[in-house]
Amino acid sequence: MTGASGPPTVIRGSRLLPRRPLRSAAAALAAISLVLVASAPGAASGERTKVLPGSAFKQVARAHVVGRVASDQPLSLVVSLKPRNEDLLESLAARSSGRKPLDPDQLRALFLPADEDVAAVRSYLQDNGFQFRSAKGLALFFAGQAGAAEHAFGVDLVRYRDALGRSFRAPNGPLSLPPGLVGKVAAVDGLDTAARYRPAAELGPNAVTPVPACSTSTGPTGFQSANGGYLPADLAAAGAYDYQALLDGGYDGGGESIAFVEFSNYRAADVTKFRTCFNLPTTTVSNVNVNGGTLDQSGGGEVALDLEVALAAAPGLDNAYVYIAPNTTSMAAMINQIVSEQATTNVHIISISWGLCEQFLPPSELSAVNSALQLAAAAGMSVFAASGDNGSSDCLPDATGLSVDDPASQPYATGVGGTNLDLSGPRSEVAWNSEFGGGGGGLSAVWPMPSWQSGVTGPDSSGDPCGVTPDYCRHVPDVALSADPENGYIIYCLTSDCGYAGWLRAGGTSAGAPLLAAMTADANEYSLAQAGERLGFASPFLYDRYANGGSFFVDVDTGSNDYGALGKYSAAVGYDLATGLGSLDADLLAQDLATYSGGTVDVHATEVTASPTVNRTITSTQSVAFSGDLMDTTDGVPIAGRAVWIQLTDSAGGRGFGALTDANGHWSRILPSTSFRRSATWKAYYLGDADRAASESAAHKIYVVPRLTAAAKLRYVSGHYVVRHGVVFTFTGTTRPNMAGAIVVLQWRAASSPIWRSATTVHVGSTGAMAARGSWGGAGRYYMRWRYSGSTAKPWLAANSPAKLFVVS
After folding, report:
1. Rg (CA), the chain
2. Is 622 exposed, middle or buried, given 0-12, 13-18 or 19+ CB atoms closer than 10 A?
3. In degrees, to the nearest 5, what angle opens at C-alpha 249 toward C-alphas 244 and 253?
4. Cα(611)–Cα(141) distance, rounded to whole angstroms?
5. Burial level of 643, CB count in 10 A (0-12/13-18/19+)?
6. Is 72 exposed, middle or buried (0-12, 13-18, 19+ CB in 10 A)?
7. CA–CA gap between residue 126 and residue 113 (Å, rounded)
8. Model confidence over 292-334: pLDDT tens digits?
């Protein structure tokens, strides 16, 4: 560019900008990046669609049409995706009691949807007018309008009225999606308002007037003297659930956090009042909005009950996280968000006091909840769900017949039923069945009996409801705790559903769920202090210990939960469908857990080795061969026929790739270049099984040098581009792997000079391409290229595109 007459006019888009001096007399190119928009993989107009299995709503068939939903009605939509490696997830979840859980990176690498699957669903819904909000585990959150939903899912949104006069919104048929998305999507919620979860709380007789202060006569003890009910110390005593021994030993939930699933907001002042009256430590209570949260406090009594019961039984909790969502949000969305935030919250226990009759939920939603609960189990979480307050007829008052409550009936939740605990004399505990309700229990119409429950069959066992005869259906509940409000929990609540009462008696199976969650927090702290593990998914542990001499069960063999006059189910010696395995002694449970998780001598140690054993640098076209050995180091023998997983973790998340060991315990796998989208940390790990412990290799780095291409939209002659000075042209490039969002620099130099100069910076577009426009200011011979200034601390190492020669006249 030597000898050019001056700086060029710079063109950005179609707008002329003022000239500006350059650092040298040479004319230069100035450029501007073009915004490149990727074409979305969604359904084009008229594209064939496919029905999403299990997405129809049964309530529609029993309701009358009122009218259409307005097309501009705002919607909050949650799409639950299917996990990867579903069989592995189910296997890991089933054996997650008292074991080290997967860490968040492993969970993400093995089971969360691939980036391209998330992108496909996002693109389709965004093309149909929805705004993407966030991704939480398997759940994608969107905002939009009814008209957009009708177009996206091929349905009409209709207003209905049911036989009880209640109005609701629902699609008029099953949902449809492009065939390529049906295999990725498990369920879509937010289109209907029919499937609303209900709190399993029963509020007993209230104080005559709100209690103004916390004195002996008008505070909780005064209320107890006049109205009965149990204070926290009563339930903690050795004659009740025996967690006072843990509290006295300093095991009060320290180091633990509980997440509470709530479909209502609440008065924080109620919880503060309760804690002040009982001089409880100031555990941090954090509200977390799900799907936008809600200001509605119609279930505020439920939330107060959950928090006050749990904080009294585990007063040393580090945090209580209250996940609050509108009551049109799915249970799957709630659990997914809790699991996705575990790395930040340290939550290992979830308490759920809301449920819905199993048959009122579409099969797609039930499946999505199942996957979310399996993720929670693999993450080492205990999930306790109230079994409902309508006894063996959970669908009351909407429908009669035997039925159970979701999510308590889910195989990977631990269902908590109800008892009437009487401490007025010698301890007496019977199945709860009173004027206020009865403890939910019975046979699932959806789920077969899980393997860990197979030893508790009896005369009421059947495979008919879920269609697996001659096998059996899932039994509910698993355990039971005090639920009758007549001998209820004394709490403080001033919301409308509490009658603005202040101190009152409360019960329901929704009191048992947070109580067991708190008892588990105390037991976890004790177990960890004895070199054991946390409880994790509780049900396999409970049934194993029941079958093998666990001393912490208190059998409840009297009463029934027949709340619908159907003759089912009676409590009996051993397991029964009214109270499950019975109630629990928390101190003995903690001792058993510590032994179970920390002292199992027949679990062998293992070692997995992996190569390459040093950090590697590869180009974007190179594959990498991984290999190693898996050994049982207790016996010194190779382990054959087991899966070893290669985990790649980069700034975009984690991915997992499996390899099977041969007869000599050797494994190998070649990963193609497309597996390395950016520089990553990798390691190999073995997840363990019933007889062998998990192990993992050392971590190493794979650094990626990207490939940048360059071209110009000009005439190309004998190895160079030909252009006149002042003529605007476009200089383009691509990146491999796709470096969307990265910043590259457009550089130029005179052919006679070795010094490269920067013209402008460009953001790589979503397709991995970049472009810039400009013109040369004078005649000469010049080179252009793209430059990425990477490093080992960035997603990619530094790279240059080939330099392109321009002959400018």
Report:
1. 31
2. middle
3. 75
4. 40
5. middle
6. exposed
7. 18
8. 999 999 999 999 999 999 999 999 999 999 999 999 899 999 9
